[in-house]
């Protein structure tokens, strides 16, 4: 089953390097990936993902109005897509996060996002906060870590689903209600 992953870390922790490594690993096996980065991220040029190690490659840009629709992504990729990789995911909005979730669960497309969890004041970014929902059986985000994040982030809220892996499918009414309140509340 495909999942939506969020890999967060501090600035200068190697998030973009990790994204570029994952892209290389997929492509080395002959699989097609599509990279996105925030439209306003021009550290290594517009529409490019780069690491402080000097690795740079082209990427599509996303802004607040970008729709992550399956057919559009296939056209951008030029055919079958094995994985969607997103840098600077803290700039995703809640609607985009829901679209990425649909891609992972409805279209069986793995989506891996890298970004910051909070700004310099400790306030959660909208996209990062949305991505902090957790399945009780997650092997990616330990419960103790999630609880510590809610303690540190003044607007962080932990939404945990019993009997679920890392990314809940959000088809059960109780899951939909909790998440709708979280996103719209």
Distance between the termini: 30 Å
User: How many domains, in number, for the residues?
Assistant: 1
Low-confidence region ranges = none
Main sheet specs: 5 strands, parallel
Mean pLDDT: 83
CATH topology: Rossmann fold
Rg to the nearest angstrom? 16 Å
Q: Write the CATH homologous superfamily.
A: P-loop containing nucleotide triphosphate hydrolases
Estimate the global geometry from the Cα principal axes.
globular
Give the strand line-up of the largest sheet: 1-7-6-2-5
In CATH, the architecture is: 3-Layer(aba) Sandwich
- Tell me the structural class: alpha/beta
**Top-tier CATH class:** Alpha Beta
Description:
The protein is an alpha/beta fold and 185 residues long. It has one domain (4-184): Rossmann fold, CATH 3.40.50. It is built from 6 helices and 9 strands. The strands form 3 sheets. The protein has a 5-stranded parallel β-sheet. It has a two-stranded antiparallel sheet with strand order 3-4. The model has no long low-confidence stretch (mean pLDDT 83).
Chart the SSEs and their pairings:
Elements: E1 4-8, H1 15-28, E2 33-38, E3 48-50, E4 56-58, E5 60-62, H2 70-77, E6 83-86, H3 94-106, E7 111-115, H4 126-130, E8 134-135, H5 143-152, E9 160-161, H6 173-184
Parallel strand pairs: 1-7, 2-5, 2-6, 6-7, 8-9
Antiparallel strand pairs: 3-4
Attribute tags:
five-stranded parallel sheet; globular; two-stranded antiparallel sheet; 18% strand; single chain; 6 helices; Rossmann fold; alpha/beta; 9 strands; 185 residues
